[in-house]
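Lab notes, practical 5.
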Amino acid sequence: MILSTTESITGWKIIEIKGLVRGSSIRSKHLGKDIGAALKSLVGGELKGYSELLEESREEALQRMIEDAERQGANAVIALRFSSSQIMNGAAEILAYGTAVRIEK
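Output from the prediction step:
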């Protein structure tokens, strides 16, 4: 699966637009990570627990979007974007979305 944040892929021709594809992941914070993050925020620096949580969430959302594109018969996704939103206190959604297409050289 070829993924691109642009609306075209240099050297490839879009032969069919399949439509919108998306994948999401909703995660909540872990109490242990919250305590560690609160302590770390006092002295500054990266909150590695949260960085790891967000990376896992983005990867899961991306994989779900790819599965959606494959179900639609696409071999690429263009105009790929990520979005996030708070669902409730302590829980957030990461959304990956784009346009599924069939491309050829």
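Observations recorded by the TA: The chain has a mean pLDDT of 88. The chain has one domain: 2-104.
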